[in-house]
Amino acid sequence: MRETGEKEASVRAIIEELCVDGRKKPRELIPFLQKVQARLGYVPAEVLREAAGVFGVPEVEMYAVATFYHQFRLQPPGEHRIKVCLGTACHLMGGQRILDWFGRRLDVREGQTTADGKFTLERVACVGCCALAPVVVVDEKVEGKVSPTRADGILLSLGVKPEAMKPKQPESA
User: Fold this and answer.
1) 10-residue block means of pLDDT along the chain (173 residues)?
2) What is the CA 144 to chain-centroid distance, rounded?
3) Does the pTM exceed 0.85?
């Protein structure tokens, strides 16, 4: 209960800080959401709910904008963000296989964060390093020519224990 009260106070403080000049116009919604995400790393549902009144729009519209644009995250990101490039070159060189490999090793799907909050697995369209395909960006470090073995090495370097990386069966379609 106390945590909820602190979180509500924090949400109100953020909204007051970002909306210091009072009621906002709907056209200012996206920059507002970008600022919230830059500050918190994601856009909490509480912010969408509280800010709806500030913008004079229904909560559902706030949610629609936040979910329409791929840039907004509605869940807190993991400690480490693993972004697998699926641009044309990376796709042709096995990017999807690498994304699936990380997913099975971490037991998450694309866009999800592991249960322990350590890793978020994401797909990106192109990181601009096509000669290094398939490319993975871990936090801000670019890893090129990633194979499943190299993916395991990346996870080991991030503190994942080998016994935790036992391959999980791919989900049947």
Assistant:
1) 60 77 80 91 90 90 92 91 97 97 94 94 94 96 97 95 70 55
2) 21
3) no
Q: Cα(88)–Cα(83) distance, rounded to whole angstroms?
A: 15
Per the CB < 8 A criterion, the answer to whether 30 and 67 are in contact is no
The CB density around residue 73, as the number of other CB atoms within 10 Å, is 19
The Cα 173–Cα 170 span in angstroms is 9
Task: Tell me the C-alpha distance between 123 and 96, whole Å.
Answer: 9
Task: Name the residue among 36, 67, 70 with its Cα closest to residue 51.
Answer: 36
Angle formed by the axes of helices 2-18 and 29-40, nearest 10° = 130
Q: Where are the alpha helices (DSSP H) in the chain?
A: 2-18, 29-40, 45-55, 59-68, 88-92, 95-106, 148-157
Residue 37 CB coordination number (10 Å) = 19
